[in-house]
């Protein structure tokens, strides 16, 4: 009984830290999207809605960039803005496909996240151009914790796109009671927006964009271990350092 209680506490702790909703029972058996095209999926995605998290108290303007290096490895950068301080924070990591064949199952590892650095994400459905519904579940015995993200190509997606995502959630019986709308109103122009307009890779792999010494393009893995704090661009006293292009990196999809 004591061991079981400890397992429950561990699950609840991990679920809380990972922004998941804990529940009784086993993880639902959801199949990843078939014929998933990772190259079409690459690019910028804005977090439109997701299960409520503790970090929603301070986080807003959440955006994720996926890009493939010349080595073939796929890198991920998550950028969020602190609603209290206005400081932007970027966390870098990498992604590996882990499904059978061309299934939309991805293992993502963030080098700078202190808790639960690695997770398995299931792409339930995406049309690549407008929306993606991503789900995860972590289980310990008869207990589990779920998370869901509704990602869109537009920062503020039109209602027709959101209705399609709700249809996906209902199709998989994902409980919408805990879905929380990400604050994307009045967000400043992201450094990654500037990079994309110049054909440069995501910000998490361009240290020079935040005043750090530029790392060699031959060793992009070194960049993912860095965590950057970017000053609020609304502050007119801040000096903007334009990033320089780095060869050997390809942002496969140019997203508006």
Q: Could you explain the architecture of this structure?
A:
Residues 1-19 form the signal peptide. Keywords: Disulfide bond, Signal. Residues 209-256 are annotated as: Disordered. Residues 36-154 form the Lipocalin/cytosolic fatty-acid binding domain. This protein is an alpha+beta fold. It has helices spanning 2-17, 38-41, 159-171, 191-197; strands at residues 21-24, 43-51, 59-69, 74-82, 88-97, 105-110, 118-126, 131-140, 143-152, 179-181, 227-230, 249-250. Strand 3 and strand 4 (74-82) form a beta hairpin. The radius of gyration is 18 Å and the shape is globular. Residues 1-19 and 202-256 have low confidence and may be disordered.
Largest sheet: 8 strands, antiparallel, barrel
From the helix content, strand content and strand pairing, which structural class follows?
alpha+beta
Q: How many beta-strand elements?
A: 12
Oligomer: single chain
Q: Which value, in Å, is the CA radius of gyration?
A: 18 Å
| Contiguous runs where pLDDT drops below 50 for at least 5 residues | 1-19, 202-256
Helix percent band: 10-25%
Q: Which sequence of SSEs, written as H and E, runs from N to C?
A: HEHEEEEEEEEHEHEE
- Average pLDDT for all residues: 73
In spatial order, strands of the major sheet run 2-3-4-5-6-7-8-9
Shape: globular
- The amount of beta strand, in percent, is 25-35%
- End-to-end separation in angstroms reads 54 Å
Q: Compute the number of helices.
A: 4
């Amino acid at each position: 009984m004591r061991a079981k209680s400890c397992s429950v506490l561990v699950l609840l702790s991990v679920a809380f830290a990972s922004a998941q909703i804990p529940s009784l029972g086993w993880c639902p058996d959801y199949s990843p999207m078939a014929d998933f095209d990772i190259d079409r999926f690459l690019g910028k995605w804005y977090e439109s809605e997701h299960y409520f998290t503790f970090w929603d108290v301070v986080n807003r303007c959440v955006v994720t960039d996926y890009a493939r290096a010349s080595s073939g490895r796929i890198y991920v950068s998550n950028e969020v803005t602190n609603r209290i301080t206005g400081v932007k924070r970027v966390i870098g990591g990498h992604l590996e496909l882990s499904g059978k064949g061309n299934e939309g199952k991805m293992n993502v590892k963030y080098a700078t996240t202190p808790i639960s650095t690695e997770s398995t994400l299931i792409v339930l459905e995406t049309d690549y151009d407008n929306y993606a519904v991503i789900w995860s579940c972590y289980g310990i015995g008869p207990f589990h914790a779920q998370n869901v993200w509704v990602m869109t190509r537009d920062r503020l997606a039109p209602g027709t796109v959101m209705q399609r995502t709700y249809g996906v959630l209902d199709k998989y019986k994902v409980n919408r009671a805990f879905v929380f709308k990400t604050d994307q109103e009045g967000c400043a122009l992201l450094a990654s927006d500037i990079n994309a307009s110049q054909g440069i890779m995501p910000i998490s792999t361009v240290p020079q964009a935040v005043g750090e010494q530029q790392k060699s393009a031959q060793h992009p893995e070194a960049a993912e271990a860095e965590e950057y704090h970017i000053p609020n661009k609304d502050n007119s006293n801040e000096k903007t350092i334009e990033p320089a292009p780095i060869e050997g990196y390809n942002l496969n999809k140019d997203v508006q």
